[in-house]
Design brief:
441 residues, mainly alpha, 3-stranded antiparallel beta sheet, 19 helices, 11 strands, 51% helix, binds alpha-D-glucopyranose
């Protein structure tokens, strides 16, 4: 068991060891490139140990911004070693992609406004205004793009075109849809020939992490095949929508957006900028639209299929994200908190599992299908405080810190035993440990 002082020292060492110029790699052997929401969580930790690094973690994200405002989920590392990764995306086929860096063609949850505000909190008022002024144009363009491009019917909910956009890559609501609509014939053939082992031989991720802790092979192929389809449409959303069977208004993504909108408005107020009227209206629509994701029968929020408008009633940690959005009633919040208190749902020994324990999809060791992650805990802790559940927030802070005290800065953890899983020395685990330690009440 660690003392908190040692934990802080070791978490800082991880962030130092994973640095790559202006940004921090999530995990050098497994994820060497710059990821959008990783950098946001990393900056939230870095602000306590190095303000210049926290700022550059976020400003370096802007290198990848597309001319239409999109922030890509990935900015690739340069160098011959990574040529295949860059080629797989070939983002240059889209006219809006940047000239100087290679990026992916999809986004990730809009955590940037939150990170900008959190980093700003550690500055003097004058510095903060300067910082906000610097980040404002990119942030505004990003939020405008989210609505213009991803909410084509002005519903208030933005859509996602790949599970990687949600950040919870193998979360059951998405894998369920994937299996229902998307598996091309060649993947089904591999599945029925029981030839997944062949795919596992070719995978890079399972060289560093045991395969029982990662995606199953068929899901890997399915994700790869969607990405190829997106590339064929040059990452142009309108073209993708004409052909896609697979578009979701994801609950986690939209909750993060609702919260980010609030931050955007606060930033605008601080630097006396006007938020364009259309955007203000869109933001208001989002707050209201969240209610359309509530299912009164299951007493739960769910993601929704963009085309059919049907709720995807597959349980996952997304159900708790409305707490973080801040846009639900105290009565609804109380229902969500109950599920956190129940050890058979979201309250096992080391919460919060990415899939409720009583779900048929729960797998304590596999990626986003059961394990506990520090970033989702951080979002839930914030939401709990917002609704006045400080004791719950304190308890979740303690159990999160206990996980890293026992198991180190793992990518994720078994929610029943607390065992560390996935990559070691994972940057957002280290960064959010620092933030949780520094923000203890
Ligand atoms: C995995 C996670 C995703 C994260 C990325 C880099 O793909 O599912 O959320 O951004 O790794 O750490």
């Amino acid at each position: 068991m660690y003392e908190n002082k040692d934990l802080l020292r070791d978490a800082s060492a991880v962030l130092k060891q994973n640095v790559a110029g202006r940004y921090t790699m999530p995990s050098p052997p497994l994820y060497p490139h710059q990821w959008l929401w990783d950098s946001c969580f990393i900056a939230i930790g870095l602000r306590h140990i190095s303000l210049p690094r926290a700022k550059s973690e976020l400003t370096s994200l802007l290198r990848g911004q597309w001319q239409n405002g999109m922030l890509p989920n990935l900015i690739f590392k340069s160098g011959a070693k990574y040529r295949a990764d860059r080629r797989a995306w070939h983002s240059r086929i889209n006219p809006y992609s940047p000239d100087r860096v290679a990026t992916s063609g999809i986004t990730q949850p809009p955590m940037l406004a939150e990170a900008v505000v959190r980093v700003g909190e550690t500055m003097t008022t004058i510095e903060r205004r300067e910082w906000y002024r610097h980040m404002w144009p990119a942030l505004l363009a990003y939020h405008e793009w989210l609505y213009l491009d991803r909410d084509p019917h002005s519903e208030g909910l933005v859509l996602q075109i790949h599970p990687w956009e949600v950040g919870l890559d193998s979360t059951p609501p998405w894998t369920a849809e994937l299996r229902e609509h998307q598996l091309p014939l060649w993947i089904r053939a591999i599945e029925s020939a029981h030839a997944s082992w062949l795919i596992n031989l070719l995978r890079r991720d399972t060289r560093t992490v045991p395969s029982k802790e990662r995606f199953d092979a068929i899901e890997v192929l399915a994700l790869f095949s969607i990405q190829r389809r997106l590339k064929r449409k040059a990452y142009i959303t309108s073209k993708i929508l004409n052909h896609s069977l697979f578009t979701i208004e994801d609950l986690t993504f939209n909750c993060i957006l609702i919260r980010a909108n609030e931050h955007l408005e606060a930033i605008a107020k601080t630097i006396r900028r006007a938020v364009p009227a259309e955007l203000t209206e869109a933001m208001q629509r989002s707050r209201e639209a969240l209610e359309s994701l509530w299912d009164p029968y299951a007493s739960s929020y769910y993601s929704r299929d963009f085309v059919t408008h049907k709720l995807i009633k597959v349980p996952s940690i997304a159900a708790l994200m409305p707490l973080y959005s801040g846009a639900i009633s105290p009565e609804r919040a109380a229902i969500l908190v109950k599920s956190l208190e129940n050890e058979h749902v979201f309250g096992p020994a080391y919460p919060v599992p990415s899939v409720p324990v009583d779900s048929k999809d729960f797998d304590a060791n596999r990626y986003w299908q059961g394990p506990t992650w520090l970033n989702t805990n951080w979002l839930i802790i914030d939401g709990l405080r917002r609704y006045g559940y400080n004791d719950h927030a304190d308890a979740l802070t303690e159990s999160s810190l206990e996980l890293v005290q026992k198991g180190g800065f793992a990518e994720y953890f078994n929610p029943l035993s607390g065992d560390p899983l996935g990559a070691d020395n994972f940057s957002w685990t280290a960064a959010l440990t620092i933030d949780l330690l520094k923000s203890k009440h």
